[in-house]
Design brief:
This protein is of the alpha/beta class and about 325 residues long. It has helices spanning about 10-25, 50-60, 65, 70-90, 105-115, 140, 160-180, 200-215, 230-235, 250-255, 270-275, 310-320; strands at about 5-10, 30-35, 95-100, 125-130, 145-150, 190-195, 220-225, 245, 280. It is about 40% helix and about 15% strand.
């Protein structure tokens, strides 16, 4: 059977849009396979290759039980779990060469979770109106090489704008399948060493590179921003490295006190479990990074602000108000 390009969406709300993407992939000579992750209604204008009832059954239950899970959130979580399991199995069986997911907020996150099962280098595109930067990208990207395409308009209806987005997404998948490639196992003799870095450790890592190269090792640098560390350790588990220099384990500090560089519970445990040589340097563990929040404070006061002192006290008042 020709390898598949998955198209995943909630067909009870986005059937025509998924059908359009499916047909565009067919025009490129690809073999699309539609998975329905809808919950309530029937597919609109499309027959899936793997229905929501089949997906629920694959997960060990029925679509009726999913529909009566107690809340919409609970039902979405079940379907997310089932589609991730299904796609992971298809990838393990080498049936899939690429995927496109379409969805709004819940649908976008649900389809993205499934696409994360595809290996690095396999085309994976999530089309969603929340892929705008106003929302967190973590649920859409994870630690993968996901491409996120902002739909601009909501995914409800076919028009010149939406069709342009869908056309280009299909073309991107086709182009990557034709000219791109998936990550392969390291070639014999390759000695790649992973290293973590942030701005404050940049100078040290830059100085380290030629020394490691002279010794016959290639440094692969990861930005220790809450994603880089876990991604590094996932790739270590996949056999990409002969060792790790955790020069910037600041994600461990974030794990303790919070911020936007929080990693996961496995951070700093993987190398030991794998038996990989590892050097840990306490770079950047003395600070954490929190998100900047823009706050506008309106101060109503009869104080004349022409004098420097009055302005100074207003600044102090504003600061105290913020904290």
């Amino acid at each position: 059977m020709k390898e598949l390009v998955l198209v995943i969406g909630t067909l009870d709300t986005k059937g025509p849009e998924v059908a359009y993407v499916r047909d565009k992939l067919k025009e490129f000579g690809l073999n699309p396979y539609v998975i329905d992750v809808g919950i309530l209604g029937e597919p609109i204008g499309i027959t899936p290759d793997f229905s929501k009832a089949e997906l629920a059954q694959y997960g060990g239950t029925t679509i009726e039980k999913v529909q009566n899970a107690g809340s919409r959130g609970a039902a979405v979580e079940l379907m997310r779990e089932f589609v991730v399991k299904k796609v992971t199995e298809m990838v393990a069986n080498k049936e899939v060469i690429g995927a496109i997911g379409l969805g709004g907020a819940e649908g976008g996150v649900m389809t993205a979770a499934a696409l994360m099962a595809l290996p690095i280098g396999a085309p994976k595109i999530v089309i969603s109106p929340i892929a705008s930067g106003k929302h967190e990208f973590a649920p859409l990207v994870g630690t993968t090489d996901m491409m996120t395409m902002h739909s601009i308009v909501d995914i409800l209806g076919l028009n010149d704008i939406s069709k342009t987005i869908f056309d280009n997404a299909a073309a991107a998948v086709f182009g990557m399948i034709q000219k791109g490639h998936q990550l392969t196992k390291p070639k014999p003799g390759t000695k790649a060493v992973a290293v973590t870095m942030l701005g404050n450790t940049n100078t040290a890592i830059t100085a380290m590179q030629p020394l490691m190269k002279e010794a016959g090792y290639e440094l692969v640098v990861f930005h220790a921003n809450g994603v880089g560390g876990p991604a590094m350790e996932e790739l270590a588990e996949a056999g990409q490295f002969v060792g790790i220099i955790d020069f910037t384990p600041n994600e461990m500090a974030a794990n303790l006190v919070g911020g936007i560089h929080v990693a996961n519970e496995n951070r700093l445990k993987v190398a030991g479990r794998l038996g990989l040589p590892q050097v840990v340097v306490p770079g950047c563990v003395d600070f954490v990074v929190f998100a900047m929040v823009k706050v506008t404070v309106e101060i109503r006061s009869e104080i004349e602000t022409n004098s420097f002192l009055d302005k100074f006290f207003l600044i102090i008042f504003s600061f105290l108000h913020l904290i």
